[in-house]
Write a structure and sequence with these properties.
The protein has 166 residues and is mostly helical. The protein contains eight helices and no strands.
């Protein structure tokens, strides 16, 4: 019975750490930039940490694009300035564009999300997609690519900092 209790405690402790990293990565400002160092501090391996952080950061993006679009639509009904601003941007983004412009926008969004600085990240990418009227199926791939890039960059930086300070 003692062995079963010990195994159960270790299992639930590991799941708790995974869920903490997963949950922190979902937060709008912190995202995986804070979740990866936290996961390392909690004793997770780099692989476990990066997988939990990337998955946690990916989960809210489709909901974020849809929700933020609805918030912008609601605010458009309350403010004439916001309505004009949103309508103008959405009209421009809905115009026909060639494949080269789409590819450059795809790369730009992925790079913006991948930069590990405040004010960039998946939630900012979702806000841009919502503001520009980009659909989830078009906005999710570059944001996902940027999240993976940010995860690699932050993991390398965290790994270097751990090596320097230990």
């Amino acid at each position: 019975m003692l062995l079963l209790t010990t195994i159960t405690e270790h299992f639930f402790e590991a799941v708790r750490r995974y869920l903490i990293v997963f949950g922190v990565a979902m937060l709008p400002v912190i995202e995986l930039r804070g979740a990866i160092p936290l996961g390392i501090k909690l004793g997770l391996t780099y692989r476990e940490t990066i997988v939990c952080a990337i998955l946690g950061n990916l989960v809210p993006i489709p909901l974020g694009i849809v929700f933020l679009r609805r918030v912008l639509e609601f605010l458009s009904t309350k403010s004439l300035f916001i309505k004009k601003l949103v309508d103008r941007k959405v009209d421009k983004s809905l115009e026909k564009h060639d494949a080269a412009k789409y590819a450059s926008a795809f790369i730009a969004l992925a790079v913006l999300v991948a930069i590990p600085l405040p004010g960039t990240g998946a939630w900012t990418g979702a806000l841009i997609c919502a503001f520009m009227g980009v659909k989830v199926r078009e906005g999710f791939p570059p944001i996902a690519l940027g999240i993976v890039g940010a995860g690699v960059i932050v993991t390398v930086i965290t790994f270097g900092a751990v090596k320097v300070f230990s």
